[in-house]
Specification:
alpha/beta, Rossmann fold, 21 helices, seven-stranded mixed β-sheet, 4 domains, 17% strand, five-stranded mixed β-sheet, 25 strands, globular
Length: 646
């Protein structure tokens, strides 16, 4: 039973951080929700999609983040309350529109949720989206707990509507995917009606009008700052008028509380927790800077608070309003992650280490001998692992075919990679085929450049690789550009009929929407043929055909598209089709004596292919194998048997 849609005010429930954000939107009376899947923010849209019909909310997975923000902005301009959610890198994609919709304003509450990923667990960078709030001059809220995630989201709608300005809520992985107790509030029954008449003007302006809107934006932010000065999301705990002050936000709040408690510094240190971090509540900050001599900043990822507080402090120091201050944090190197200051996640140990270094304390969380024993014991039991494709993943077969065809071609081809499960094409699981990886769409974008370098002596085949969802998201303009300029490239689209990496969300090629309703199917091949490029479609599990097509198309001039189409096994398994049993006839398996040199387990490395050390033979792990049978086609001894199940 879902707890998200319970209309029981005062009830305490356990919610994931992203679910709490969705609940806050419900309690704010959200009408319109859009986004593009990306961890750690995906569950916000997914949660609202599950209750959309019950509360008459429109929810969509948009083709990319800028379209998502534009669609939600239109709803807000028509007086509805709208929300857009995305991962940190999505803020890059939508930034163009963000830098103008801040000027044009909004009638309904308009909230942008960004999910940042310290230590880059599920993304390619540690981008800190708080900088976008400062850049665009929009209010920024940073929850520290699931309860605050709910409450701040509701407040974000209220302040957005009051100011007529988009408001940003920034969360991070550890909050988005952690669970906490949340006290529910009421879900309003008010029904809003969209309205946009011929008298309405919604624009960021031009020329002098833009300057006027820019001035108005500053006035809105001044009003936001006044509200933030008194916000309940800011609090101070610890010794009154403490000489040592910790200034923190987000996850740093709980880490700081625990660190101070473990070190027994409750009567020495004061902690100023800021939930409203842009615009900075300067008067509140000044109040506590006046009694401080040392200030430690605890935050993820960039020194955002540190920079802003230091700017305020520099003005106050010049005016003589505060005494000399010593600052510690990212800049001083005291708050540092695994890879140094300004990178990686922080935790309680990071804060403890910083406090111990600054205050010259001797603290060790564990006995040194105990730590060494634990490290030794874990190392002896847990084998080293590298990231790999799932059993029966078609991408493994696709990369194998590309590698084989490039070997046949013999010209040391260039393969440009993209963002998705197939990013693992950089690693052994993808036979280390891909050599580049940047942002979504960069595979074919950079291939455009490589494909025009023949006149400068780079005479190599160029292969761009992306997935199906990424194709719709960011690759179409670059494909048009390639055709327009006759770039000599082969664009391989790995179509597994889902947005697999982020949780199997739909896209324009799946034929259903965020609520599971049937919608028009927009075939990739129709778009490509409409652009005027040659298109071939192959199942990568037909390995010989796949290799042959890559090889043939590498010899063709101009822009070509090859679609490797095979459904993701994780979605395919949900259809509960009977699958063949695959096993090794160990009498046929030659083992180490085979010319393949353990190809199935050493090279192809499907998790379902394992080695029977006792017998020196290959074996199928039937608990993992899903019966794709591609290994049977590749086994030179024909020792892998496929047995159809009736």
């Amino acid at each position: 039973m879902s707890q998200l849609d319970l209309n029981e005010s005062g009830r305490r429930v356990l919610l994931m951080g992203n679910e709490a954000i969705a609940r806050g939107a419900l309690e704010a009376g959200v009408n319109f929700c859009s986004g593009y899947p990306g961890n750690p923010a995906s569950e916000v849209v997914e949660a609202l999609a599950k209750v959309a019909e019950k509360f008459n909310i429109y929810v969509e997975w948009s083709v990319n983040e800028i379209v998502a923000l534009e669609a939600s902005a239109a709803a807000a301009a028509a007086g509805l309350r709208s929300l857009t959610a995305m991962k940190n890198l999505g803020a890059d994609v939508c930034s163009d529109f963000l830098m103008t919709v801040n000027l044009s304003g909004t009638k309904g509450g308009f909230v942008l949720v960004t999910g940042d990923d310290p230590s880059a667990h599920s993304t390619t960078t540690e981008l800190d989206t708080r900088n976008y709030a400062r850049f665009a001059d929009i209010p920024l809220l940073e929850p520290s707990t699931a309860q605050e995630a709910k409450d701040m989201t509701k407040f974000a709608f209220e302040i957005s509507e009051e100011l007529g300005l988009i408001c940003m809520v920034r969360t991070v992985t550890r909050l988005s995917h952690a669970r906490g107790i949340v006290t529910l509030g009421p879900i309003p029954r008010e029904k809003r009606t969209a309205s946009f008449s011929s008298q309405d003007l919604w624009t960021s302006g031009s020329s002098s009008i833009a300057c006027m809107f820019h001035s108005l934006l500053h006035e809105k932010m001044n009003r936001a700052q006044l509200k933030f000065e008194e916000s309940r999301f800011n609090k101070y705990v610890g010794k009154e008028n403490a000489d040592f002050l910790i200034v923190t936000s987000g996850t740093g709040w709980l880490y700081s509380l625990e660190a101070v408690k473990l070190l027994g510094l409750e009567d020495i240190v004061g902690i100023l927790k800021l939930g409203t971090t842009w615009p900075l509540p300067e008067k509140l900050v000044l109040k506590h800077l006046r009694h401080a001599k040392k200030v430690l900043f605890v935050e993820e990822i960039d020194p955002f608070l540190e920079q802003n507080v230091k700017m305020v402090a520099s003005e106050l120091l010049a005016d003589g309003n505060v005494g000399p201050l010593k600052f510690y944090g990212k800049k001083s190197g005291h708050v540092r992650g695994e890879y140094g200051a300004g990178t990686g996640e922080i935790d309680v140990d990071v804060v403890i280490r910083a406090l111990a270094e600054i205050m010259d304390l001797n603290y060790q969380s564990r006995n040194k001998e105990y730590q060494e024993k634990v490290s030794s014991a874990v190392g002896s039991v847990v084998p080293p692992r590298t990231m790999g494709f799932c059993a029966a993943c078609p991408h493994r077969a696709s990369f194998f075919a590309i590698k084989k065809a490039l070997q046949w071609n013999g010209r040391d081809g260039i393969v440009t990679g993209d963002i998705g499960c197939y990013s693992l094409g950089l690693l052994p699981t993808g036979f280390s085929v891909a050599k580049t990886l940047h942002c979504m769409g960069a595979s074919i974008g950079t291939a455009n450049g490589f494909g025009k370098l023949a006149q400068f002596g780079l005479d190599k085949p160029v292969v761009a690789i992306s997935g199906d969802s990424t194709f719709y998201h960011a690759c179409i303009p670059a494909l048009i550009n390639a055709k327009w300029h006759n770039a000599n490239i082969l664009y391989v689209i790995l179509d597994n009929n889902t947005t697999a990496m982020t949780g199997h969300q739909p896209h324009p090629g799946t034929g259903f929407d965020a609520l599971g309703n049937p919608v028009p199917h927009i075939p990739i091949e129709d778009i490509c043929r409409g652009i005027g490029v040659e298109v071939r479609i192959v199942d990568p599990f037909n390995v010989k055909e796949a290799v042959q097509n890559v090889y043939e198309m590498l010899k063709m001039n101009g822009t070509k598209v090859l679609i490797f189409r095979h459904e993701c096994p994780l979605t395919e398994m949900e259809k509960e089709k009977k699958r063949p049993r695959v096993y090794v006839d160990q009498d046929k398996c030659i083992g180490d004596e085979c010319g393949c040199v353990r190809f199935c387990t050493r090279v192809f490395k499907c998790p379902g292919n394992i080695w029977d050390s006792a017998k020196g033979k290959a074996k199928i792990d039937e608990a993992v194998c899903v019966g794709c049978s591609i290994c049977s086609d590749l086994c030179p001894a024909k020792a892998i048997i496929v047995e159809e199940v009736t």
